[in-house]
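Progress report, Aim 2. The chain analyzed during this reporting quarter is listed below.
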Amino acid sequence: MQKVAIVGVGLIGASFGLALRKAGFAGSITGVSSPRSIAVARARGAIDVGVTLEEAAAQSDLIFLSQPISGIIETLKLLGPLAKPSTLITDAGSTKAAIGKAAARSECKGSFVGGHPMAGKEQRGAEFADADLFRDRPWILTSHGDSPIEIEFRAWLEKIGARVRILDAATHDRLVAWSSHLPQLASTALAAALHDQQSGAAAVAGPGLMDMTRLAMSSYDLWRDILDTNQTEIAAALDAYIAKLQNLRANFEGEFSSGADFARSLRRS
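Predicted structure tokens for the chain:
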């Protein structure tokens, strides 16, 4: 693997470039993105130069799609007839079933492996990129191919410190609905309730509230695509969470006023 192209050099894409460099990757890293993002990513050392998608497809061994889900799907449509047969295309999308279907429809000449690094920040943009963003974090892949480029790609993921996990797309989407998407909705709901009902609470907030509401600062554009492409699994997780809250509310006076153990009440609810 000598030539890598990163399509979308924001937080995740630029962090991937920085991580590769820190791990010793000596090949070329090009970027496909807006002029501003290219400039910032170059200044940070995440990419060498900006190119067009057509140029990236013609010369790259690995193409890493690091865009919102809708952007990844649109890029896959364009890449289909452009990519070399030897090129590996992967992505960083937060849901996998919809992207996998789009890759199959694109009839791409190269091979495609869905991916999802379980890492991020509430900030966006290459200026916040971090070479250690993926260290000790799961990096989900949707297949375990044995082609030389796929084996080398997995090896580089391990070199940058990620913990590679193989999950089919449906299992991935179900699990992240609970581990990622539900926490985002819970954080957003809490922040909205505080804003609407008790905005003055922020003046007396400790770190616990900051931790609970940090996710609410995440990008709407990013989460709109996630919610749109994983509706069924997110709805199931949200229903189960709401049921737990309702059970807690129903048991609140009897359990808590008598001094019953909080954790025991949570387990029973």
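The CA atoms of residues 4 and 62 lie 5 Å apart. The two ends are 52 Å apart (CA to CA). These observations will guide the mutagenesis work planned for the next reporting period.
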